[in-house]
Amino acid sequence: MVQEPTQDHLIGTTVDGRYHVRSRLARGGMSTVYLATDQRLERDVALKVLHPHLANDPTFLERLSREAKAAASLSHPHIVGVLDQGEDGPIAYLVMEYVRGHTLRDTLNDQGALPPRLALALIDPVIEGLAAAHNSGLIHRDIKPENVLIADDGRIKVGDFGLARAVSANTSTGALIGTVAYLAPELVLGQPADARSDIYSAGIMLYEMLTGKQPYAGDSPIQVAYQHVNAVVGRPSDAAPGLAEDLDELVQWCTAADAENRPVDGTALLAELRHIRTTLSDEQLDHRQGPEPAAPSPAPTSVIVPPGSPAGNPTEALATTASPTEFISQQRNPTTIMAAGSPAFRQSGASMAGLDRDEDQRQPGKRELKRIERQQSKDRARAAATPVRPLREGNPRRRGVIWTIVIVILALLAASAGWFFGMGPGSPGTVPDVKNKTVAEAQQLLRTAGFQSEPRDVFDDDIGAGLAVGTEPESGAEVRKFQSITLFVSKGAQLFALPSLAGGSLAEAKTALNTAEMALGNVTEAFDEKVPAGVVISQDPAQGTEVRHGTPVAMVVSKGPQPIPVPDVRGQAQDAAVKAIQDAGLKAVIAPETVNDKTVPKGAVVSQTPANGTLIKGESVTLTVSKGPKMVKVPSFIGKQAKEARQQLEALGFDVKVNEILGGFFGTVRDQNPVDKEVPEGSTVTLTVV
Q1: Were 577 and a residue from 184, 325, 527, 605 both cysteine, which residue would form a disulfide, CB within 3.0 to 4.6 Å?
Q2: pTM for this one?
């Protein structure tokens, strides 16, 4: 997510006494999303604050609470978690897991059409997340590239579960939220959504990933919505020649106009998606288009009001500046804007459909030409088998002989057919299980069952090289014995050379691993005197090692030079102090000026800079050396009052000791030691007082 610099009254505040708002991430028609810190758990979160027209609707807030609780019950690695929901005065908010990274839309804008291998790898976790949601009875309703988040560490998550349902079900609007480019036909017509509606949107998204563009375009959202209802999504290979036929069938299965003809839910689609990934060849998976197409302009996000729904208080839809929100209402401008399902909508659609049919009649597709050719061939065969004149009457005996011969031939044919389909090559047989058998063993099992097999080498991560992976048709299938069986033989796991990660930042290393379809292993940190902090020092396995896709790669990342605690050498002799500093790996520097100190003897260290903390190896510590205490002359106070003598001596820095004779009744100094001498500052002067 890209943070947008902006002035916002919420930034710097704390919502509900818990979520400290740090910056704004995005703003849409329904809410504003902020980066916040959960002060209770000390973690970053995405705080979605709803706009006032939604936050002030009690019915909507009650529905949002139910949807948030349902979405929060989902715990899946490919679904953005809903962590909290609440209200703080006029602020209604949702708290979600913060995913640092970018969206699938960003990837499509940067790269255009993706190779099938990458497209299938990216959409796989999306479908896995949908499958988990569908199994929990939840549907998304707004699957699109903007809601697919790709984290910096390669994780892929689907966001905004539950929000679209809560908004579209808000009784104050009666409107449906969704991006028109990915909207299922039944939602355009105001019919209920189910898991198959999500499947349709995912199919449109896969079409865009494979071709670099969306299947339907129009000058207005209503034109795009019409095509979803009345047109058939084309084959991706028509827009991107060279794509495998299996990919065409997968996309058209997901985007069937009739929901009954789509996969029933995410689980059904996920199984077929992974099956296709294993059956496509490397050439088909790595197929790339010629010139990269320009990044598609995202279709507008629209609010489509079903017939009879009120439109006086439209609900806004979440969108960015690149994907504006429009409200399509039957009441605003009946001459140019049509509600989905209205008579005007159908009439407009009929005109467009007529143009489409005329175009199809002028330029029939390849499939239509083949169908016409097959029909013409059948007509010619039928005409050739129809006699043009009656047979002339012949001899009755001859006719009897002919009929006898015909009956015998038919009997032989029936017997032959019975043998062929009952016991011969045409009889049914069950394909045996040959998994993990040697090629010779597998072929013998197939021959025993009456089948002929053709070996075909394939890569397999789980079965050793030279052993059978399986068959096509699969084991347990009942087929005619004359049909050829393909025997898949493992070539072992397909290996790929690891890229070099050392010398780059950790973020760059993660991107390289993601591109190479490898996993991020254990990341440790170590001090290094030469490698800057944050740069990868080494990797395991090493660069160039051939490993399987998904292999975890561990890395050691530099923490920079190791900090060295500064030793305290104050009070030590100069030579000893210098040695202690050097032994620690630091450099000792003697200050040019010495200082007097009454407590530190001459030649010892009085002070050092720095006195504590840490330094990097080779940095300097400055030592200031003592020249001993300062010499001060002790004046004579004999004959003077002891109190005055004490004050003046202490002012000169001496310690004063008083010996009283006869109780010191007079307070007069009778004797003093030392007197009239220079002695070190801080020395003790003894006064004898009478």
Answers
A1: 605
A2: 0.46
Number of residues that this document lists for the chain: 690
Q: Is 142 a catalytic residue?
A: yes
For residue 508, the number of C-alpha atoms closer than 13 Å in the C-beta half-sphere is 11
Distance in angstroms (rounded) separating the CA atoms of residues 603 and 597:
11
φ, ψ (nearest 5 deg) of residue 93: -145, 160
Structure confidence at residue 414 (pLDDT): 67
Residue 457 near residue 489 (C-beta atoms within 8 A): yes
Where helices occur in 233-365 by DSSP H, the ranges are: 236-239, 245-254, 266-279, 282-285, 343-362
Output the pLDDT for position 165.
53
User: 368-378 pLDDT, tens per residue?
Assistant: 444 455 455 54
d(CA 2, CA 100): 9
| pLDDT score recorded for residue 416 | 62
pLDDT of residue 166: 44
The reported pLDDT for the residue numbered 395 is 54
The whole-number pLDDT of residue 244 equals: 95
Q: Which of 142, 198, 265, 528 is catalytic?
A: 142
For residues 122 and 209, the answer to whether their CB atoms sit within 8 Å is yes
Please tell me whether residues 477 and 616 are part of one structural domain.
no
Which two tokens mark 684?
């003790």
pLDDT at 482: 62
Low-confidence ranges of the chain (pLDDT < 50): 1-6, 164, 166-177, 291-371, 374, 378, 380-394
Q: DSSP characters for 54-78?
A: HHT-HHHHHHHHHHHHHHHT---TT
What string of DSSP letters covers 248-262? HHHHHHHT-SSGGGS
Would you put residue 212 in left (φ > 0), alpha (ψ -120 to 50) or beta?
left
94-108 per-residue burial string, b: 16 or more CB within 10 A, e: under 16: bbbbbbebbbbbbbb
CB 109 within 8 A of CB 184: no
DSSP calls for 173-198: T--EEEEGGG--HHHHTTPPP-HHHH
Residues 192 and 71 in one domain: yes
Is 380 inside any structural domain?
A: no
Compute the distance between CA of residue 188 and CA of residue 175 in angstroms, rounded to an integer.
11
Q: For residues 532 and 609, state if they share a domain.
A: no
- 45 three-state secondary structure: strand
Full domain range(s) for residue 600? 563-625
- Which amino acid makes up residue 217? A
Q: Are residues 1 and 108 in the same domain?
A: yes
Take residue 536 and report the two structure tokens written for it.
């990868």
Rounded to an integer, what distance in angstroms lies between the CA atom of residue 509 and that of residue 498?
11
Residue with tokens 């069937």: 256
Residue appearing with tokens 């003093």 = 672
Number of other CB atoms surrounding residue 534 within 10 Å = 14
pLDDT of residue 586: 92
Q: Measured between alpha carbons, how far is 61 from 55 in angstroms, rounded to an integer?
A: 7
Total tally of structural domains belonging to the chain:
5
333 and 244 inside one domain: yes
Distances (CA, A) of 312 to 154, 309, 332: 44, 9, 9
Which residues face 49 on adjacent strands? 32, 93
R_g of the chain, CA atoms, integer Å: 43
- 3-class state of residue 415 by DSSP: helix
Residue 43's DSSP bridge partners are 38
Tell me, yes or no, whether 276 lies in a domain. Answer: yes
